Amino acid sequence: MADKKEIRRAQLTELVSKKARFAVGGALATGIDYLIYFPLFEQGVAPVKAQVIAYSVSVVVNFLFQKYFVFEQQGSTRATFLWSMLVSLGGLVLSAGIIYVLNWYPFFQEYQLIAKLMTTGLVFFYNFYCKRYVFERRFF
């Protein structure tokens, strides 16, 4: 009985640790995303186009961070990269869709930072569980 509890506790600790490292890599990628998005937006680039450009650059940085500091890669780097980019494409579609919908509202048109923060928070969970599956072949 105690062994099951200890195993469960160790699994939970590992999951929390991976999420924390994923969050650090995500923060780095998000910083890059924001540093690209806002100057583009300020220069008159449409929000969805700016999102596509910024997100695309940040996912490559994020992949490298995940590969070396977050997940234990199962399989070839090439296959993992391709699957990771496919998941990131899903995240891009999801994030661009959220930005698109939020920009229907004048409030979010004026306060792009809030729109970006909301989008980032929602896409974080999608990315974590899908990328964990890509790297480690498991969700939980």
**Rg value:** 17 Å
Distance between the termini: 21 Å
Mean pLDDT: 88
Instruction: Report strand %.
Output: under 5%
| Helix count, DSSP H or I runs of 4 or more residues | 5
Helix content: over 70%
> Would you list the SSEs in sequence order as H and E?
HHHHH
What sort of overall outline do the alpha carbons produce when their principal axes are compared?
Answer: elongated
Count of DSSP strands: 0
Unreliable stretches covering 5 or more consecutive residues: none
For the largest beta-sheet, the strand count, sense and barrel status come to:
none
Classify the secondary structure makeup into a structural class: mainly alpha
Please provide a written account of the structure.
The chain is 86% helix and 0% strand. It has 140 residues and is an all-alpha fold. Helix 2 packs antiparallel against helix 3. The longest helix is centred in the N-terminal third of the chain and has 41 residues. The relative contact order is 0.13. The mean pLDDT is 88.
